[in-house]
Amino acid sequence: MSLSQATPLLLREPGFLFHALLASSEPLHAAAASNYDADPWPVAWIPWGPTQEGSVWSHNMNVEPIRVAELFDAVAYSVTEVTTTLAFAVTNYTLHNLRRAMNAPSSLVTTVSGTGATLSSKLEPPEPEQIVRSMIGWESLDHTLRLVGRQCLNGGEITSSFNRGAASGIATVWNFERPAAGKAFAWYGSGVGRLGG
Q1: In angstroms, rounded to a whole number, what is the distance separating the alpha carbons of residues 173 and 55?
Q2: How far is CA 51 from CA 41, 54, 81, 142, in A?
Q3: 87 to each of 138, 155, 163, 172, 182, how far by Cα in Å?
Q4: What confidence tens digit (pLDDT) does each residue in 36-72 have?
Q5: pLDDT greater at residue 34 or residue 159
Q6: Chain-centre distance of CA 97, in angstroms?
Q7: How far is it, in rounded angstroms, from Cα 69 to Cα 51?
Q8: DSSP state of 33
Q9: For residue 18, which of 193, 148, 113, 177 has the smallest C-alpha distance?
Q10: Residue 196: its pLDDT value, please?
Q11: What is the average per-residue pLDDT within 157-167?
Q12: How many Å apart are CA 174 and CA 135, to the nearest integer?
């Protein structure tokens, strides 16, 4: 039997990022024509907008060896910790995106004066008791893959560089927590191709 290599089903381009209040309804994740294009994200899911360099999803599973005194080799390994994050730096530099990055409620963005073109708004950082969790969503550019983080907290350093010839971004690292009901996150794939074998 001769061997051949199939063309891989690649995942390219940054995709789309969304933010929602905790316990917001997810999309139906109903596929049509092998994609989710006809299944929009509910209105509660606010697009973050463009990013500096896309996003980085990380799922880290720590294992520790179980040893006995009489053997050099581990006799088993035990999972001791799982950490999942999604990191990105949004370039849509708004007070509400800064608020989301600070894990702050929308009530901390207030009006100083005016409306429309004369509107002046203010954002102050949250007190510890005001910290809120959020839901984070991601969808691939071809609308065939989705990621939903059901309870997330930005735990990274919020950094912004104000440099000449570059767009400033709001850098975030969203840590996925396990909610009271359900799993911390879910991946959704549409069509037979994204299912794989």
Answers
A1: 10
A2: 19, 5, 30, 17
A3: 11, 10, 21, 6, 23
A4: 999 999 999 999 999 999 999 999 999 999 999 999 9
A5: 34
A6: 14
A7: 52
A8: T
A9: 148
A10: 84
A11: 83
A12: 10
